[in-house]
Amino acid sequence: MSESARFVLVGGTVHDPANHRDGVIADIWIDGDRIIAAPADTTGFTKIDARGLVVMPGGVDLHSHVAGTKVGAGRRIAPQLARSHPAAVPTIHSTGALYAALGYTTVFDAAIATAAAAMAHLELADLPILDKGIYLLAADEEAVVAALDRDDLREAARLVGAAIGTGRGWAVKVANPGGPSFWKHGRRGDHHDLDTPLPGRSLTPRLLLDRLARVVQSLGLPHPLHVHTANLGLPGNWRTMLETMKTFDGVRAHLAHVQFHSYTGGNLDADSFGSGVAPLVEWFNAHDELTLDVGQVLFGDTVAMTGDSAAAEHLAHATNVPFMSHDLHLEGGCGVLPITYREKSLIHAWQWAIGLEWFLTADDPWRVVLSTDHPNGAHFLAYPLLMKLLGDEGFRREALARVHPQVRKRSPLAGISRELTLQELCIITRAGPARIAGLPHKGHLGVGADADITLYRPDSDLARMFAMPAKVFKAGVLVAEDGEVRATPVGSTLNAHPHS
């Protein structure tokens, strides 16, 4: 099927939340790379039978790690995974093919240092099929931090806007606000609250977050400030997350991989470590300016890679595993280390349960994005398993029965019976991420939308259903069918244009 193909998907069961279609039998008309209204003259349109199939927009992964120097480091530090489980750290070509075969058509890499943007784009140019974009770690730049310290938001906006323009970025990411400054001054992974001034400055992490969020808003970027807050993975960090949420009261912000920031306790013992989700989700549900992705942990082997080098070093020391850190012009960098999540591990089981608790207690699915923080919590090929955990209470209870007994006993997950519907799963994997990212032509099947469409065979086993779409179209081209890649067109690079 060529890129200029004209066809109609006939009689599919359409899930299109953005256009209020929930399991409606409808035809979808495509002309080239766009969805169109039903034409008066249907001459030249090929009919494709979609009867009995579930029709959804192509998936949008709002927060992943697929390119750049950190991913290259992940491939080097865990070559055994590249051989035995290549989805954990796939090559760039495999990344596009595997995502597409899963029904995804758009992906964002959520942590690229500004100095590494050009290198990341060289790699992304080889990523087939998918449209793609990057979030830049602009808050790691000393000049930006200095402008924010002076409360010179005009200069900060000039610097950030230039970084986005030059680096062809889509959004601004902050990883551990102020963390690089603390780390470079010998603070190696210990707690710092949001009100501790950065070394040699009056600027605190809280002020950095507030001022940077307003800078991003002033630039008119499509996606709000993307926030990985302080104290990633540390016991008791739910308090830091709550204070982070309060910092943005009335200002839009997106909270990244919140599962890793929702822990009670002062240490890693069985009595104190646990879930801090309840007070966090209460605040989140009441504040529409906030959106989040979960960063779900699933059990198995993977590789952690984060723009928060201090947190990665702390985890490596705590677990006695190999660790790699690379700084870029001393402005920031990433930490990389292999990790295995185990069902019987107290901490890993809590992480698994805490992520599911977030998904199932947040009221508005439009503000919650399905993610594993690929590959940090699990690789993206585990998304169908996660969707089954969310949509099948019986399956979830069976899984809960296998984890550490303290988690089975104490986790609120045991008392949650909610099952996400197909429409809600469509929202958190497609319609919601597209809206949050600021992509009006994606995540829906209305007139004018990109012809990014996935057809699934309905199945009571949701993992099986979402693991192998019947057909996947990217910009009107059939790119995957029954798990086989049929075409590898070049996707677009999504880059924002800041206000001057």
Summarize the structure.
This protein is of the alpha/beta class. It has helices at 69-77, 79-84, 92-102, 117-124, 142-149, 153-167, 179-184, 205-219, 238-247, 277-285, 309-319, 346-361, 383-391, 393-400, 405-410, 422-437, 462-467, and strands spanning 6-16, 21-31, 34-36, 46-49, 54-57, 59-64, 104-112, 131-136, 171-175, 225-228, 253-255, 263-264, 274-275, 290-293, 300-306, 324-327, 333-341, 368-369, 453-456, 471-474, 477-481, 484-485. The chain has 2 domains: 6-57 and 444-485, Urease, subunit C, domain 1 (Roll), CATH 2.30.40; 59-437, TIM Barrel.
Q: How would you describe what is shown here?
A:
- The strands form 4 sheets. Strands 1, 2, 3, 4, 5, 19, 20, 21 and 22 form a 9-stranded mixed β-sheet that branches.
- β20 (471-474) and β21 (477-481) form a beta hairpin.
- Helix content is 34%, strand content 22%.
- By secondary structure, the chain is of the alpha/beta class.
- It has 2 domains: 6-57 and 444-485, Roll (Urease, subunit C, domain 1), CATH 2.30.40; 59-437, Metal-dependent hydrolases (TIM Barrel), CATH 3.20.20.
- The chain has helices at 69-77, 79-84, 92-102, 117-124, 142-149, 153-167, 179-184, 205-219, 238-247, 277-285, 309-319, 346-361, 383-391, 393-400, 405-410, 422-437, 462-467, and strands spanning 6-16, 21-31, 34-36, 46-49, 54-57, 59-64, 104-112, 131-136, 171-175, 225-228, 253-255, 263-264, 274-275, 290-293, 300-306, 324-327, 333-341, 368-369, 453-456, 471-474, 477-481, 484-485.
- It is globular and about 70 Å long.
- The longest helix is centred in the last third of the chain and has 16 residues, at 346-361.
- The chain is built from 17 helices and 22 strands.
